[in-house]
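Board work, copied verbatim: Pirin C-terminal domain-containing protein
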Amino acid sequence: MTAGRGIVHSEMPAGPGTSKGLQLWVNLASKNKMVEPGYQEFQSKDIASTTSADGDVTVRVIAGEAMGARSPVRTRTPTMYLDFTVRPHATAPVRQPVPASWNAFVYVLEGEGVFGPTADQPAGAHHLLLLGQGGDGVEVWNRSDKPLRFVLVAGEPIGEPVAQLGPFVMNTEEEIDATVNDFEYFINGFEKAKHWKSQAMIALELEYVG
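↓ predict structure ↓
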């Protein structure tokens, strides 16, 4: 989703049981702050995916490119969002290039892996590792008895000041004040927000009335 000049939205998990998900917010350059909002919807089968020749590594390419597969998702800020799964005792490391000037981090979802030199200590589930700039990418080993799953997220720095209040992200406090005013008075992109209501709230109201 591209919020642009203004969009009110709600994402609700589909199906029974516990849902697990990751949500990534990517800043827009000042020149793109007021573009028309947009939404790209893809089913799981539409996400680009590929597996290494030896079967040890599978990657789902949510944004960017990896192992020859390219995501259909379009981003205004150059972004890489990769979901890797590595089999236990994989014979070779995952090697993923990352532009030297980009910011990047790894978040481990399942298992444990060594990120960087083989002498480093492994990082386990729910650990986040910030990658330093200036390198040519990341190398990951799975020498454990369990599958390793992690996401690699990277993006090109915008290099602009950031002013943030709640869900609103602009460049100056004055722009934040103007955006809050637009939201409260339903103008400049928020015209439809006046009568908007999330499906979750509707369901709660129907349950209450029933």
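The two ends are 34 Å apart (CA to CA).
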